[in-house]
Fold each of these.
Amino acid sequence: MRFSADQLARMLVESGARSGPLHAQLSQGLRELIELGELPIGATLPAERALASALSVSRTTVVTAYQSLSQEGRLERRQGSGTRVRAAVQEVERETVSSHVLAGDHAAAQFLNGPLATIDFATAALPCLPVVADTAAAIGREEYLQLGQQHHGYHPRGLPALRERLARWYTEDGLPTTAEQILVTSGAQQAVELVTQGCLQAGDSVVVEEPTYRGALEAFALAGCRVRSVASDAHGMDVAALARLSAPRLVYAQSTLQNPAGTVLAPDRARRLVKLAEDEHVVVVDDTALAGTAFEPARSRPLATYGDSERILTIGSLSKLFWGGLRLGWIRGASRTISRLAQMKGITDLGTSLVSQQIGLHLLDQVSLARSSRRSELVEGLADLTALLAESLPSWTWVPPRGGASLWVRLPGADTTQFAQVALRFGVAILPGAVFSASGGLTEHTRLPYAVPPAVLRAGVHRLARAWAAYLGDARSSVPVVSLTT
């Protein structure tokens, strides 16, 4: 397995900030990735010069780090064959867990590896709304006893009462739905993975917009699909460009609110996408996980409201609106399709937590309150972030989002894979735009969260401004990590 310089640079960003000389920081980061198995035995590391460019350090820094790890017996370097991860003496011929998907950068890295830096701008997770704790605490012992009396407690399709409630929720919003059309999942990510496993085979063609949700890209890659992309602008996916492609097996869209750009699919494009699904027999996955965070929810409609085709699968979630810790999502689709996906879910997951589902059942009565609360905090956070950027980083640009928890920002002339390394030295972690791209493009972009405390937001932007000045100047100089109050 061969790692590119950009790929390894992203892995180092996501594994966290470090202190000390740059060569020591690099050797420590590589050492941890090797120990965790993210860099598997036999993996070929990038050439010194290429990695130095991706990390915005001198070639000497990389040479010194490689030499240090070679002396420890973790790397082997051979003239003409490059640098490889070396098996320790006690290692067997093949690792116990050796799946290829364990190598490389991935969306869960920042959650698996702990805090990324003093200030973490790499994640855009939303804080838990107080109504979640209030609702969970208000459920009494008798209700939990009744829940526990439901035989074995396994419901692969989801708690019947919750499925009925979700169906009624859609119906009340103008999209007639029955409980048989709902499959409850452990979050929207599991929903994406179930659809991927159930609708796609290795080699199938998938089209996404550019940029798009990173977790979906990883699910499609894991399934061995051929992923193509079409551009996205302030009005959402360019459906006209999509229509010019040879018909794919599946299109992954985000009509109600796009992650990470915060755009909403225009009604005329939504209608054309639904018609394309019907005419070309294309499966369309409409991920509406962010819908509850829209600044103007009345203007945000899922694709199924434009034509309830059997080929449209709608993904929903309570994670963004209420709290990610609930791990509660769902798929809405044709009854037969939902039944088949439920069979697949039952093979690997006998059911999502009934306790979370019972809490979610009550939270659905609090949706209006939650949307109002979430909208207020997000609008305020966005205003704070854009004011700080205008003051400290006036050359950075963006299209105003219509919801969501992050701002999709363009850094003119930058390679954000390189800039992310410089920013990390100033104690703030960001993600390169390439991780949101099917083709590894979008190198001038990054995603900045604004659902963070004002003091942290202010400190983070000030650090980014200093990092930007260093990047435009001598990005290869050693820079100490600054304090939170800087």
Note: Residues 271 and 306 are 6 Å apart (CA to CA).
Amino acid sequence: MKTLYLDTFSGISGDMLLGLLIDLGLQARQLEEGLKGLPLSGWRLRIGRESRHGLGGTRVEVLCDPGQPQRHWKEIDTMLADSDLPQTVRDTARRIFRRLGEAEAKVHGCDIDQVHFHEVGAVDAIIDICGAALGLSLLGIEQLICAPLPLSRGFVTTAHGRMPLPAPATAELLTGHPVCDADSGYELVTPTGAAIAVTLARFGSLPPMRLDRVGCGVGGRDLADRPNLLRGFLGHSQNSDPQRDQVAVLESHLDDGNPEWLGHLMDQLLAAGALDVAFSPLQMKKNRPATAVRILARPEQADALAQQLLRQSSAGGVRIDLQRRLKLRREAGRVATPWGEVAVKLFFDGDRLLRVTPEFEDCRQLAERHQIDLPEVYRAVERAADGLFPRKEQE
């Protein structure tokens, strides 16, 4: 499996990723020609070799003509949907921008359609995101893995004024993902870089692989304490199956807790990154009715969630096990109904689509907004999703 591992010791940005892909063998002419499929003018790429702390790599800059407009998320999404980019690239870029739009909407307290993209909505960010989707496709990357992302302290100047680092949208995007302290006062992880990483990569350590090539994408700032590079290891992974991983299982039995706390406990655990939380009834010693708490989590989050369970419940101890997990590959999608779009989860066995599952909250909101029965919305989603399954040729 062709695998690219992102070594993010100096963070990640869209332009650094583009530089890395070219350094790993992506033809710059192919990238530029492919990006001409965007209905977008007034930009060009400047590509060259630069070094940081004596280490060389490829620097990519998106140069824009003055007077470029700011855009709402919907404008960008429509632009991408109507572009001449390859279908898979178009869909990937739209997923990244939607992730970015949802993060911006949450931190600014508005609907995604009202999100005004300033820095991230500028031409350079559109090119960065579409270029990353196109470049990964052209290189044939089958698996993208990212190291924990380093978060900085300090402030950055944005169109909304001075903001704390990490930028609020970056922090929102990285919720539930592994991060570390950058020990830096400069912005190392941009919202665009974070959106690409959380949408396309899984986070983890370098897998066993046959290493074919090492490359570096160069960042614009020359940092005093580290080479400002995004390093990538490109190779073919050995004994790697993206549908297998490990999950931490946390368990505790509560026979003396206040049941009114349990709903709040579940909300807090999920907000802290738990993959799932479940309660089940128990009959314990002295015939006491009790509750079993079972939490599924990423292994690196197990200790923090266990501490939270001990603090916010009557638990006196937590059992933690690591278990192997076989899972279906999943992707996010959207389907159109007569009342609006609904987010869905697409479940694949390899490349074969097995099922499409509607997101409950989207369905509930449509049902309430249009005063229709919830099952009717689900049936409409199922009819729309039917077109996503490949058709067998008639004999």
Note: The first strand starts at residue 2 and ends at 7.
